[in-house]
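Recap quiz, item 2
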Amino acid sequence: MLRTLAVTQNGKLLENISLQNLTGPDIKWFWVDFDCPSPDEVELLDSYFHFHPLAIEDCMHLLQRPKIDHYDETHFFVIHSLHPETLKAEEIDFFLGPRGIVTFHLAPSLEIEEVWKQFQEAAIYQEKDHNYVAYSLLDKLVDTYFPILYRIEDELNELESEGEVNVDIQSMTEQVYDIRAELLRLRRTVIPTRDLLYRILSSDKIPGVKEQHAYFADIHDHLLKLTEMIESNREMTADLRDSYDSLRSNRMNAIMKTLTVITTIFMPLTFIAGIYGMNFEYMPELHTHWGYYGVMGVMLAVGFGMYFWFKRKGWFD
Amino acid sequence: MLRTLAVTQNGKLLENISLQNLTGPDIKWFWVDFDCPSPDEVELLDSYFHFHPLAIEDCMHLLQRPKIDHYDETHFFVIHSLHPETLKAEEIDFFLGPRGIVTFHLAPSLEIEEVWKQFQEAAIYQEKDHNYVAYSLLDKLVDTYFPILYRIEDELNELESEGEVNVDIQSMTEQVYDIRAELLRLRRTVIPTRDLLYRILSSDKIPGVKEQHAYFADIHDHLLKLTEMIESNREMTADLRDSYDSLRSNRMNAIMKTLTVITTIFMPLTFIAGIYGMNFEYMPELHTHWGYYGVMGVMLAVGFGMYFWFKRKGWFD
Amino acid sequence: MLRTLAVTQNGKLLENISLQNLTGPDIKWFWVDFDCPSPDEVELLDSYFHFHPLAIEDCMHLLQRPKIDHYDETHFFVIHSLHPETLKAEEIDFFLGPRGIVTFHLAPSLEIEEVWKQFQEAAIYQEKDHNYVAYSLLDKLVDTYFPILYRIEDELNELESEGEVNVDIQSMTEQVYDIRAELLRLRRTVIPTRDLLYRILSSDKIPGVKEQHAYFADIHDHLLKLTEMIESNREMTADLRDSYDSLRSNRMNAIMKTLTVITTIFMPLTFIAGIYGMNFEYMPELHTHWGYYGVMGVMLAVGFGMYFWFKRKGWFD
Amino acid sequence: MLRTLAVTQNGKLLENISLQNLTGPDIKWFWVDFDCPSPDEVELLDSYFHFHPLAIEDCMHLLQRPKIDHYDETHFFVIHSLHPETLKAEEIDFFLGPRGIVTFHLAPSLEIEEVWKQFQEAAIYQEKDHNYVAYSLLDKLVDTYFPILYRIEDELNELESEGEVNVDIQSMTEQVYDIRAELLRLRRTVIPTRDLLYRILSSDKIPGVKEQHAYFADIHDHLLKLTEMIESNREMTADLRDSYDSLRSNRMNAIMKTLTVITTIFMPLTFIAGIYGMNFEYMPELHTHWGYYGVMGVMLAVGFGMYFWFKRKGWFD
Amino acid sequence: MLRTLAVTQNGKLLENISLQNLTGPDIKWFWVDFDCPSPDEVELLDSYFHFHPLAIEDCMHLLQRPKIDHYDETHFFVIHSLHPETLKAEEIDFFLGPRGIVTFHLAPSLEIEEVWKQFQEAAIYQEKDHNYVAYSLLDKLVDTYFPILYRIEDELNELESEGEVNVDIQSMTEQVYDIRAELLRLRRTVIPTRDLLYRILSSDKIPGVKEQHAYFADIHDHLLKLTEMIESNREMTADLRDSYDSLRSNRMNAIMKTLTVITTIFMPLTFIAGIYGMNFEYMPELHTHWGYYGVMGVMLAVGFGMYFWFKRKGWFD
Ligand SMILES: [Mg+2]
Ligand SMILES: [Mg+2]
Ligand SMILES: [Mg+2]
Ligand SMILES: [Mg+2]
Ligand SMILES: [Mg+2]
Ligand SMILES: [Mg+2]
Ligand SMILES: [Mg+2]
Ligand SMILES: [Mg+2]
Ligand SMILES: [Mg+2]
Ligand SMILES: [Mg+2]
Ligand SMILES: [Mg+2]
Ligand SMILES: [Mg+2]
Ligand SMILES: [Mg+2]
Ligand SMILES: [Mg+2]
Ligand SMILES: [Mg+2]
Ligand SMILES: [Mg+2]
Ligand SMILES: [Mg+2]
Ligand SMILES: [Mg+2]
Ligand SMILES: [Mg+2]
Ligand SMILES: [Mg+2]
Ligand SMILES: [Mg+2]
Ligand SMILES: [Mg+2]
Ligand SMILES: [Mg+2]
Ligand SMILES: [Mg+2]
Ligand SMILES: [Mg+2]
Ligand SMILES: [Mg+2]
Ligand SMILES: [Mg+2]
Ligand SMILES: [Mg+2]
Ligand SMILES: [Mg+2]
Ligand SMILES: [Mg+2]
Ligand SMILES: [Mg+2]
């Protein structure tokens, strides 16, 4: 689908006018949205708008990393829209020219929908222009990254605050690795976007930026905070993972202590019982009255001796 | 609550005068403090002071990272006040303009209270101005980070100096991970604040900095030291964590040695006893007089043999 | 083998003309390909083309890292062609001069073959020149790196999505280390190539780059994406490796639990049976009617007692 | 204690003259040393020399990191003197002005003592000036860092060269962690000092540096070498620590093999003996003549069978 | 020993002329080699050549890191010659001045010998000068680093390609750590040398570099490749080390499985045999004809039951 929005020199809004009417002298600025376009519509990028073939290639190809390319007067942006649950990235591209903006996306985009509606209000379309459309899209998209990171931080805090007794470490470990993978995926979008904003701010090629410097700096600021949160959370997951390793190793020690205590107490006792279970004809102890009780006493002594030896070594703490 | 402090051209201090009187030609400089302001008072940031909407948004939003934004003649600062125990960060914002300073905080702030009192003394309010208020706040806040780090270093030194015999490694490991988490939290405040000071020092946008360069450089210096201490302590905790892993693994070796020694000594003995416990009719040894004593001798020999073999292999060291 | 391709001032294509005819005033530009050259042909680099001895040395020596060297008007490029399966790198060199390009490779190259054919079409050889040959070779070669990385990512995703029950961790671990080694090898080609493109873009020495800046920037962009994918996948393999370590350690805990439970239940029971297997004459219990049943009851109680104790400690979860 | 040294325009040395005489036109340059000064003497920094309050604060406060601060014509240096055994840092501060140098230290300093004596020789005090005092102090102090690092390297080499048989890994591990902690402490002094020298070399604020550039570059060079040695030794300790982990884990494998071999050989044998120890009335084997010898043969076969099975699996290598 | 080589304005070679004759107007350029000089000869650095005392100090002191220092018209180089087996570094220093070069080494140097011979041929000494001596020495020395790294890579590849069955992991682990230590030592020479070349290339202080830029760039290129190979091999050894840890841990699992299977099968069986080895008078089973066979059947069932339970759990895979 392809839709247009144009604002005339005297501040009137024209919707869905044909592409041919966009370039008239009466048009102050325009916005064309390629919303899941058909192959025929895609053709227009080249045949009508004459965008650079490399930029058109980037629109159609698999997922690009967020970036900005400068082609003479037209600036080509690639941004990511992230699915809040799966973190799957969808590409949103736009061409920012001197007279208007052309957005392009192969999947429906909620963020574009919102900005489109916003620009149907007179207060907005009369005061702002296509440069502000670009800002609004960037701002909206970056704003959607925060809830994702907040959800991840919540999951992480929950993991951290769980008591360490009787927990299923293996399932917690897997959660930690899931979170690490999500942070990695998030970083692959956030870091190039941060660099993109930095390049917007430090370049003087894009005309709309100068007047709206504070606005773009605000997005850059958000991206700095996102980067720091991602790195900091990566380090927290590393610590969590290591602490689970320690806990696991501690439990192993406890298991081995149990095994060793039991073995060390009962092996000598069983051996003693084995001695008096031998069938030698001449074993004087067997024929005494006190033999059985004596051996039982010795066994008790050996058993408790072992027990107190372990106790003194601190194995039961 | 909203309170004001203004100094006239001839060095008189006016307290709690209304906002309307702040801009008169008689006022040399002023300080307005938004101390846990009501929604109506917050409105004044926009309606009376006409601060930039993005800066006002940052005041009201959740915790921002420490930063400085430049809006024409007004400079907007975000700084963190850290709770000494929980390390929870509270945001303190201020707007530094050519004629005065406006501070804003949603929670009560001890540091602002202190500076406020300090500026009620003639010696101060006559010689210094609103730029020095900004310096004093930054200095006070950064000074509060040191006791936190010193406490962490003390905890760490205590952990390090504890003997390694009979200690509860698991609880010490958990303490190490707590300290690591605290250092991480501290770093999220200190590093952006350090960058903020660096930007203050290397920019020439803020008029008060030039005359007080040494003062701001002193704060920057403190932040450099804090950063180094944090990084160095992070590395120390990593070493401590690894040394506990080694210790744990060492103890496991000791446990397994105990188990193996006991098993290796008693299993063959029990087996020998088992042989002479069999009920075969024709077992010549059973009927000899020396049989029992001979077997006991063999057992003793096997037992001590094993013992000395382990001793020679150094398992009892 | 040595082959030539030349385009005259009036747009005619000459193929396989002799080297002597390449420098005539009628020749607009030329391309000479040293395809697995004989030692005699290699001589021509020096005797006919007078290339710098260091560049010729680099052609003949073992594998060089991707790089660009500037010798007066001639620019010397070293690029890698990677075998899609073994990732073995073959070197492709070219000399880009003001009047033509000379390519050199000691192994047959599919990419050069393709570009050679492409330049036999009038539409191409009339519009483009030897600078575009250089671009096309770089573009083709870098494009071949993607399928390799996509295959690695697929292998990695397969590993990640495999269930964690009953898998052979050791073979999966080895796969992870194989992938890590492949990523390392890939990085040794991609990173110097990325730096090479960066130097092409930021230098003004190479005449063809300015007009085709967008084209070279597109290759640089591909290399940035490759770098990020490699680093990100390296981190994923590190996480995978660590998670296998955790899994392995978890299984060890399960094995030890089994051992300990069995030992702890049966050792005391065997000991009790051993007591009543002793041959003392005076053991009153042996002569009672209920003795056998009583001992069996005690054994059942001890066995189940141990079992429930472990159950309560959560060892069977 | 406070002592002075002044050189007159005609090259005469005046010692311990009063502060008031230092500023006369006859004095070419002077050196004042605050050696463990009394509170009254400390006052002079402010009342007589009028140094900047922030610099004076740094003198009195706890340990500062090595740094240089510029206050108009006076340059304030903080350097560390390290205790060769404990690596405890003592602060040595100096103020380098256009007419002289003022050194300040709260603990006695051997290095200052040495330089003081050196400057009592005519050959030195006539040719050199207070800038060379500054250089000499920096040089002396940095020279004292080398023996410390050489000692650490010796300890490390000794650890590395020790055979790996029968060593007490736990005590060696602890030595490695001690060395790591020392390197960390050393780095906290060396790195800021290196940065300080770099700033001296690349700044043109300090008048004496230009003429003595080679001298200051030599100290910087020493600090670069120290930094590299520290980092390289840190990596060596990391490798040593990891190799001890491997060794420990290897020993655990050996212990477990011993345990498993013994258990696997004797458990089945003890079981067989147990079978023929049962008291069933109808066990035909018990009543044959060859029964006992047959069972002993079976036991021998089982035992040796197990033994050779382990041997073939390579457990005894 | 001290030897000289001088070339006259009309291209004649003078060997072993005295130092006094080196500075005559007839001499175009000269080379003086201090080959394991005696203390008297060392004196000449100062008394005859008047080199800077700091440079002379560096010649005599213990091993310096590779570096370049500029003293007016003389440039002082420190380079390392590495022993191919032990990787022990020997220092080779040279002073490059406007009229000649002075080399200095306390140990005999094969590389200097080679270059010396090379410059005795007319073709060389007539066309090239002392600047080319400097280049040749650098080139020769850096070329000797490659065989060392190739040998290390070969050792590493051999380790990698060894099958993972029945190998002695501990000895392989030690080999890996030896290789890591060698790479570390190599890096301590290569990285400062790379920086030194970079400084030569980017500085315009050294007169000979401009004309021979391509030659020095070629050495820099070699050093870049060496650096990359070292880093890449360090990462490979890290992976190898980790994979041995995994393998070791896997073997431990296999050992523990063997132990647990044996224990779990035989403990219950031994217990059953123990029950019927008790000497109670009233144990009805003992007196039945089928008792013995029944118990043997139960034992078989228990044994095989355990066996198949482990089989189903996949412990025998
Ligand atoms: Mg696309
Ligand atoms: Mg936003
Ligand atoms: Mg916003
Ligand atoms: Mg998973
Ligand atoms: Mg999730
Ligand atoms: Mg904001
Ligand atoms: Mg806020
Ligand atoms: Mg302060
Ligand atoms: Mg202070
Ligand atoms: Mg705490
Ligand atoms: Mg200070
Ligand atoms: Mg570890
Ligand atoms: Mg080659
Ligand atoms: Mg391409
Ligand atoms: Mg392409
Ligand atoms: Mg392999
Ligand atoms: Mg593969
Ligand atoms: Mg592209
Ligand atoms: Mg690990
Ligand atoms: Mg101090
Ligand atoms: Mg020195
Ligand atoms: Mg010296
Ligand atoms: Mg210790
Ligand atoms: Mg020590
Ligand atoms: Mg030196
Ligand atoms: Mg030397
Ligand atoms: Mg070479
Ligand atoms: Mg060469
Ligand atoms: Mg070794
Ligand atoms: Mg070796
Ligand atoms: Mg080369």
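Residues 251-312 of chain C form a domain with the Methane Monooxygenase Hydroxylase; Chain G, domain 1 fold (CATH 1.20.58.340).
The mean pLDDT of chain C is 89.
End of item.
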